[in-house]
Write a structure and sequence with these properties.
Chain lengths: 523, 410, 63
């Protein structure tokens, strides 16, 4: 074997955003003769990463945090040179696209306002250390803010939201991945019609699930406001939640309010209830993990799942009561499906391996699976253990040096492969998220891995079921019908919602007892 | 006052200044420059740190004034303090390159009729072995004497006869004709000559004296540079007293240090070692011959001209080695990133009549790391060599960082 | 009118700082958007960046 060549290209003071760089690295890795490739800003921790990957050249070691480093390890010097030339072309093409308007791009928020007079929202996804500062500048300039960035400190969040409330501005986030404002999908969001339901959400994929279901019934959204995952903590005290609730209460086009999140800090909870009642409109409260009390409350309807939130909201619009059902598929058909899968498994029961791109969807899975199957091991709860496993692949430990699973299926594909080799795994459970911002072909990205996994299991003489929900709408850039069809062609059982997919997986893994329990209304 | 309001005030004062060329008089008379004082370009200077060209120019000026018979004696007077040196900027004046002004030198008087303040600058001596480049032989002294005895009074009379020449209008027209007012002043110099031709001809001075003055003006493409600088000085001085403004009112170099002053920080200087210009060299010269960046002429960039108007002067761009019109536009766009606004009077035809970027904001410089570009001539480091090239220099980031810290602590 | 009520009636006009893909998506939808060629302020110096943020113009001065 010929000796490997390591080459690098350093571009001083040439900042590129993280996703662009990860996509470039992925492209380079697929080049002929390339063994490993990286494209990074040369911060100290990234230089460590390069070193660990055997890519730290002398040139790269001297580069600084504002310098861009592209490094490749290839089978030959020629292959390395080709890869580096390709990266120049990639960056040059990107630069050209950005400059095609004939005018150079603004370098700061302030000069951007001169390029786009009347700008009213800043969408901020720069690295966490600077995100809070940019958000502060934006608010001072009178802009609403969607703060996509995570790794923003709690104190900064409190200060930013305090400033926003004082000025009557939205400060959505930090870690706000999804919003739909004035009919425009922001961040990772689905194409959803304008409608009569207003939403306030601490969760991005949670918001995506609910709005996609509403859209599937032809109903739409007035505003979908993200508030970030910590808004209902004691420190933040629900600042943005209350601002959003008040706004939706006052908004004439909003008839129903839906609130999505996790149970708030006790000190905040009572104020949330009070604010919802004061809204003067019917509200649906989907705080995943809260207990849902029996009894009818006409004004504030608490629900246990994201799907229930969508259907409850629709029911309220139509003035009818909503009674949650475990499945929307007729019982007979469901039983047939489950039995077929169970037969194919050739064993009594098996483990669920859930591999999620959406953190809230993973959380919902844990909440539904636990009562049905027993202890769940999940990276959402450090220290948890159990036969069944739910993994949030968007968590920090999976996204170091890798794009988020919503954009890049590499890690999920690898996890599917590993799950298929575990003889205890009976069912793999997935979320496939479509919409603006997501990858162009999420189903296609995992289909081959799924087919290979099922083949692996079959060769070993055991069955393997794959269950998924597709979070998307007919208006999304990815073709929803084609995405579902691709999954089904790979042997995936596609269910209409995450909650149903989770329950279906539980039925396959746990067999008849679980199915019976669900159908008898004992969730 | 909020920073925003303060900046609005200073930017308006700067762009709505009305500089008029009103006279030419001895510095002692026009500026009240008395005693043994030698003014120089740039921030305050310690003799020991001054470059050779500056030291040579100061000594020559001391000899010209008759305060010392030779350079050794001149140097001694400076070291003992019997001859005081100080920045032109502190005396409502500016000077190109070494920027030397002494009491008997004639200075143009520019009056800002929007605010009532005045600014002063010497008559540009021409090219080659001149005081401006640190030449200091007898020919330099002879020329200085001629300027004081003959050219100054004749020009003064001609200017007075016009009732004042509107410099803002003249410069706006010159920009349209491809001048940047720093490296290229040929259109402005021609327009000025045209304004003075009649009064010069009609003046009562001796015919051969008038001819010498006319020839002197006509031979110098850069004649207007000094006057452009004084117009800049007249426009920026009124901004110095506006608290809370982050506008840069002064950028100046003394061959050792680059200094800036900020409207909201009064007359404090923020200095850092000056950088070497980068550009093209005349035949026979190279970067190793270059003097560090020098002169008050960066005042021109401070008011939205010079490098900030590069897109209006593409011929300058090619001369300094950049690519062409696109590069010039890109340079102007880059400067727009660090400026508070667009000039209402200096317009760029190649950019859809956008005003030149004007009003450098220290906040934006520090935030973006974009430092102001300056179109500059390159002087030879050996005193008296003269101009050896032309190019681009940048103001050092450190000046703006220091100023920002001071602003934050105010 | 609540402060957000006015905003809800406006056309969304977005300044995008960070991931370029977001600007691309909005542009494809026909939403007015400008992408900022952002790089860490003050060369990445957090202390200076914080000072800059606190010296940003306030929009109140327009009212």
């Amino acid at each position: 074997m010929s000796p490997e060549t390591i080459r690098s290209l350093v571009k001083p003071s040439a900042y590129q955003d993280s996703v662009t760089l990860l996509l470039l690295a992925r492209q380079l890795r697929s080049g002929p003769g390339v063994v490993e490739a990286a494209a990074l800003m040369a911060t100290p921790s990234n230089r460590d990463l390069l070193e660990q990957s055997g890519l730290l050249t002398a040139e790269a070691a001297k580069a600084g945090s504002n310098d861009l480093v592209i490094a490749v390890r290839a089978e030959s010097a020629a292959a390395a040179a080709v890869a580096l030339a390709e990266s120049e072309a990639f960056l040059g093409a990107k630069r050209k696209r950005l400059e095609d308007s004939g005018r150079a791009l603004p370098r700061t928020l302030e000069s951007a306002r001169r390029h786009l007079p009347g700008a009213n929202l800043a969408l901020i996804s720069v690295p966490g250390a600077f995100a809070a500062l940019e958000a502060k500048k934006a608010l001072r300039l009178g802009l609403h803010v969607m703060l996509f960035s995570d790794n923003v400190g709690l104190e900064d969040e409190v200060a930013l939201k305090g400033l926003a409330v004082q000025k009557g501005l939205l400060m959505m986030g930090p870690d706000c991945g999804t919003a739909i404002l004035n009919g425009v999908p922001l961040g990772f969001a689905n194409a959803v019609p304008r409608g009569r339901i207003g939403l306030v959400s601490a969760s991005g994929t949670g918001l995506q699930q609910v709005t996609a279901l509403l859209a599937s019934q032809g109903e739409g959204v007035s505003q979908a406001i993200g508030v970030g995952g910590r808004d209902l903590s004691e420190a933040v005290g629900g600042l943005m939640t209350f601002q959003a609730l008040d706004a939706l209460a006052a908004d004439p086009t909003t008839e129903i309010i839906v609130m999505i999140g996790k149970p708030p800090a006790p000190a905040v909870r009572a104020r949330v209830e009070a604010r919802l009642r004061a809204a003067g409109k019917p509200c649906v409260l989907a705080l995943l993990g809260q207990g849902v009390k029996e009894g009818r409350d006409a004004t504030v309807h608490a629900v246990a799942t994201l799907e229930d939130a969508a259907w409850a909201a629709l029911a309220m619009l139509e003035g009818r009561p909503y009674i949650p059902q475990p499945f929307s598929i007729p019982a007979m058909e469901l039983r047939e499906c489950v039995e077929e899968f169970c037969r194919a498994l050739r064993r009594e029961d098996g483990a669920v391996r859930a591999l999620y791109a959406g953190g809230t969807l993973a959380h919902e899975a844990v909440l539904i699976l636990e009562p049905l199957l027993g202890p769940i091991a999940t990276n959402l709860r450090p220290g948890s253990g159990g036969r069944h496993r739910v993994t949030d692949l968007g968590a920090d430990e999976y996204t170091v040096g890798r794009a988020h699973p919503m954009l890049d299926a590499t890690v999920r594909v690898e996890e599917i492969r590993k799950a298929a080799q575990d003889p205890d795994v009976a069912v793999i459970l997935l979320d496939v998220v479509l919409g603006h911002g997501a990858a162009p072909d999420p189903a296609g990205d995992v289909a081959a891995a799924i087919e290979a996994a099922r083949a692996t299991a079959k060769m070993a003489g055991r069955g393997l079921a794959v269950v998924a929900s597709v979070i998307g709408t007919a208006g999304d850039p990815q073709d929803l019908a084609a995405q579902c069809a691709r999954l089904e062609a790979a042997g995936v059982w596609v269910l209409p919602s995450n909650a149903q997919a989770v329950r279906a997986a539980a039925c396959i893994a746990g067999g008849e007892p679980v199915l019976a329990r669900l159908l008898e209304g004992r969730p | 006052m909020s920073i925003k309001t303060a900046n609005r005030t200073t930017l308006q004062r700067l762009t709505e200044a009305q500089p008029f060329l009103v006279d030419c008089l001895p510095a002692a008379q026009a500026m009240g420059l008395t005693g043994r004082t030698v003014l120089h370009a740039g921030p305050p200077l310690l003799w020991e740190r001054a470059c050779a060209a500056m030291q040579a120019a100061i000594c020559c000026a001391v000899r010209y004034e008759g305060w010392a018979p030779d350079d050794t004696a001149a140097r001694a007077l400076v070291l003992t303090g019997e001859v005081r040196i100080g920045p032109c900027h502190h005396r409502a004046a500016v000077g190109p390159m070494t920027g030397i002004i002494t009491p008997s030198m004639p200075v143009f008087v520019v009056e800002n009729r929007a605010h009532g303040n005045r600014a002063h600058v010497t008559i540009n001596e021409g090219l080659g072995k001149v005081l401006r480049f640190g030449a200091n032989d007898a020919s330099v002294v002879e020329r200085l004497a001629w300027l004081a005895d003959e050219a100054g009074p004749i020009l003064g009379a001609a200017i007075r006869a016009t009732g004042g020449i509107d410099l803002r209008a003249l410069m706006a027209q010159a920009v349209r004709m491809g001048d940047d007012m720093h490296q290229r002043n040929v259109a402005a110099s021609s327009l000025l000559a045209r304004s003075l031709m009649g009064p010069l001809v009609r003046s009562g001075a001796d015919a051969s004296a008038r001819a010498r003055v006319a020839d002197f003006m006509a031979a110098n493409d850069q004649f207007f540079l000094n006057i452009a600088m004084a117009a800049g000085k007249a426009a920026t001085d009124p901004c110095l007293s506006v608290a809370d403004s982050t506008l840069v009112v002064t950028m100046a170099r003394n061959g050792t240090d680059f200094g800036i002053r900020v409207a909201g920080l009064g007359d404090r200087w923020f200095t850092a070692p000056v950088e070497m210009p980068k550009g093209l060299y005349f035949p026979g010269f190279g970067p190793e011959d270059a003097n560090p960046d020098m002169g008050d002429s960066a005042i021109v960039e401070t008011i939205g001209l010079g490098a900030f108007a590069m897109a209006a002067s593409p011929s300058v761009v090619r001369f300094v080695g950049a690519g062409g019109v696109q590069e010039a536009i890109a340079a102007t766009e880059e400067m727009a990133e660090i400026c508070l606004g667009e000039h209402p009077h200096f317009k760029i035809a190649t950019m859809d009549e956008r005003g030149t970027p004007v009003g450098i904001d220290i906040r934006k410089v520090v935030e973006t790391g974009i430092t102001p570009l300056i179109n500059t001539g390159i002087a030879g480091k050996i005193p008296g060599t003269g101009q050896i090239g032309a190019g681009i220099a940048r103001a050092p980031l450190a000046c703006f960082e220091q100023a920002l810290e001071a602003f934050g602590a105010r | 009118m609540s402060p957000l009520a006015a905003f809800f009636r406006q056309e969304l006009r977005v300044i995008n700082l960070g991931l370029e893909q977001f600007a691309g998506e909005l542009d494809r939808l026909g939403v007015p958007v400008v992408h900022v060629a952002w790089s860490p302020p003050a060369g990445g110096d957090l202390k200076k960046a914080a000072l800059l943020a606190s010296l940003t113009d306030e929009d109140e001065d327009d009212r």
